[in-house]
Amino acid sequence: MPGAATRLASTAALMLALAIGVSGCGTDRMTTGSIARMPSSSLAAMSTTQVHDASVTFGRTYARNPNDKAIAMRYATLLQMDGDASQSLAVVRKLAIAYPKDREVLSAYGKALAANGQFEPALDAVRRAQTPEYPDWRLMSAEGAILDQLGQKDEARQRYRKALELKPNEPSVLSNLGMSYLLDGDLRTAEIYMRDAAKQAGADSRVRQNLALVVGLQGRFAEAEKIAVQELPAAQAEANIAYLRAMLSQQNAWNQIKAQDKKKATN
Question: What would be one Pfam family of this protein (predicted)?
Answer without folding.
Answer: TPR_11
